[in-house]
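Our collaborator T.R. sent over the components below with a one-line note: 'Predict the complex.' Nothing else. No constraints on interfaces, no templates requested, no preferences about which chain binds where. So this is a plain run: every listed entity goes in together, and whatever single assembly comes back becomes the starting point for the next discussion.
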Amino acid sequence: MSTTTTRTARNGVDIPNLFGTINAVREQPEMAKFRFRATNRWVVGTHSRTTIEQFSGAGGEHSHAQTFAYDSDHPAVLVGTDQGPAPVEFLLHAIGACLMAGIANVASARGVTLTSVEARIEGDIDLRGILGLSREVRNGYSQIRVAFSIDGDAPPEKLREIVEQSRARSAVYDVLTNGVDVQVDVAV
Amino acid sequence: MSTTTTRTARNGVDIPNLFGTINAVREQPEMAKFRFRATNRWVVGTHSRTTIEQFSGAGGEHSHAQTFAYDSDHPAVLVGTDQGPAPVEFLLHAIGACLMAGIANVASARGVTLTSVEARIEGDIDLRGILGLSREVRNGYSQIRVAFSIDGDAPPEKLREIVEQSRARSAVYDVLTNGVDVQVDVAV
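Returned assembly:
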């Protein structure tokens, strides 16, 4: 039975499992408290490496299927060695991936089969901020734009509503647009 | 000569090049305008893949040394297949890596040689927001914490000041704490 369910899951999303999870959290709200973690270690220059391995939530501690590792660096034009994307580029990845996961879940819940979805993401930044050359220029992006191309077995308006519902429920979109308290502590 | 410079660069940061870049931007502010880009493609379910390849800035178009690719997914406990970290986990990577690159640059500019630097990053999130179970709970993190351990040839207070200056000039810290305009468009 479970094989059949998996094989026929629309868009690869296990909707009975998703609704079951939502109902379980409705009955036990403390299951919804998650803590995600990462460790970043300096390598050399602007090159560092992050590992992502464990997180807690749903009342327990969880390990990812593998330890994920990501290098980041500044590009050569910004006096780095380009061993990975710049940290600000990972923000573009995060918003694109978050909206995309939401689109798959929402489309599946609404009975829409997706054919292909692509997001082109770009962010504008004036580096006079981080270089300390202007007090009027902020350090971060002035704007991020996400442009979706989406195909599926629904009329254009319904596909647009799926993207909109994903945006309305996106964790990364909320953090990027509304900001979040970030505490930085140092042990020397 | 350049070999010698590279070999002796404190912390692997080419400070003459960094200061030369800052002075070049001071004289030509339009060099500071950068646009970073990423493309995210849906794979299946909550699994998507982002590629990061090109960006513009310093008056030109640049390609990374290679095309970087990153998978993201939801973990099994959130009805995904764990083909990569969740999008919100990449936010933790971005803030850690951004502060870390700044620490290396600031320490080098101040004549401090670093021995080791590590950041443990964690973020708290109540998933009742994204699951649509509470209007009082936000979709994103309620707080992110970054805990640095830093060693180098400077007294503790000077090492703390280096971290603080990195925070004050961090592009990702600015975006995460102050938020940014995010435009989402759809072509169907």
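Summary for T.R.: Chain A touches chain B through 131 residues (CB under 8 Å).
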